[in-house]
Amino acid sequence: MILEALYETLYLTFIPLIISCFLGLLIGTIIFITGSDIIVKSDKKYLKVISKVADALVNILRSIPYLILIIWLLPLTSFLTGKVIGTEAAIPALVFSATPFFARMVIIAFGEVDKGVIFASKAMGATIKDIIIHVLIPESLPALISSITVTAINLISYSAMAGAIGAGGLGYEAYQYGLVRRDTGLMFISTAMIVIIVFAIQILGDHLAHKVDRR
Amino acid sequence: MIVLKDVTKSYGEVDAVDHVSIEVADGEIFGIVGYSGAGKSTLIKLIDRIEEADSGEIIIGKDDICKLEGKDLLEKRRKISMIFQNFDLLWSKDVLDNIAFPLMLKRVEKKKRRELAKELAKEVGLEDKIHAYPSELSGGQKQRVAIARALIVKPEILLCDEATSALDPKTTEDILDLLRKINKEYGLTILMISHQMEAIQKVCDRLAIMADGRVIEEGTVYEIFADPKEELTKRLIRTVDTGLDVKKTALELKERYPEGHLLRLTFDEVTSQRPILFELSNKTHIPMNIVSANIKNTAVGTLGVMYVHIEKRHDIALVLSELNADGVKVEVI
Ligand SMILES: Nc1ncnc2c1ncn2[C@@H]1O[C@H](COP(=O)(O)OP(=O)(O)O)[C@@H](O)[C@H]1O
Ligand SMILES: [Mg+2]
After folding, report:
1. ipTM higher than 0.95?
2. B246-332 has which CATH code?
């Protein structure tokens, strides 16, 4: 029973994490590039507008509380997964909340890359794709890894909330045994497992970020 | 050959580059000096066409780079490399990969580009640092990496934007020597811009002074130092410790030698090579007393200023005409 909950928690964390990081990187990169004076020529005003609008959307989406997002997304969820309840049903809402968050982190990380280096790369003939792949991502890798870590930890706590729509997982387990059945032992084990997962992700993330940091 | 004809660029109200015309010959080291905000960096960006000029022509080789498009433009820009004040290396890559970066952008195979990078690391004196990361290097070493990275594409023109401004005097000297070496070795044309007259006068063949987007004075280092015309030029020259601070020295000497004739002689690279004063003394039998002398080595050779005192009883007309005939600039103080 508890192992099944553990599996569900990991599932609810890592599947949305992979999707969100991918989408967030894409969206964050687009917002950063279109908004950058160095990368695109300053006379392309419409790109600045795209950047501003997308940035605003990301911020709005990011400020909607997760539980409310679940309710808003019910129609989409049932369309995508055919269900409104259960483990899969929690995924769209998790992705919708983690993606804007991660996109924001990507924009911040890219913003910290030395402007001079971006300029110099452009002077050396780098295309926008070159700048993304060979400059922005490698130069901000420690920050990106930290962002993935934070996003993963956020997803764990969100997935506990997703228990509300019957998504299962350790959070739901703790709630069931602790509050409903008053089984303190099982509640303690569920909580401890969540704490251990969070710590493990944090330690792993910090270690990786440190390892790639040559600054 | 870089020829700028009446080049203009403004940002809104600011005329960053205002009707600038200069010519830089092949293989020459040309300097542009001016205070911050003079428009030097903008000028360099126009030459590499990172920014578009509003009007004017920028002829590089045979073509006006402002008119090139697509492949031709890329081809032309490939012949131009740049280095900057802050070196702008990728901290995530080691020395070899930083040097090889432009070749990676050109999709040169990894083994081949690292091979070439190794050669250039040697060229700039970093063969024992090829696996170090930028964070492990000193400022001078970082600029060496940047220079190697600029050279790896075999450019014809090197644009240096404040390349030594972040370095201490000794390191500046080393980097300038390196720039001169590659200028000779590769016949590379170098356009150097800086707010430091000190650095420019050491390596440049010719230089221009820029202020408020305009070139206000231009000439060989010798011409500029021996005979500055603009107030700003004089001020910039004063920052260089050449001992050529004309007014002050002259006044002090005049106080010390109120009697007799005080002459200021300015020697250039040719006249400073010959024992002119010795010959003159022999010829005229007039004893000459050297009361102050200063010799400065620049890229174009020696620039010397000498103050000579001659007793009142002698007639200096002959001295003056002889010196003029020898090509020494003479002023009676
Ligand atoms: N991208 C830009 N947008 C607006 N103004 C600029 C820009 N780049 C330079 N300028 C202005 O142009 C002038 C010249 O700048 P710059 O070429 O950087 O001078 P320098 O390199 O001699 O210090 C300055 O007044 C500066 O503020
Ligand atoms: Mg500048």
Report:
1. no
2. 3.30.70.260
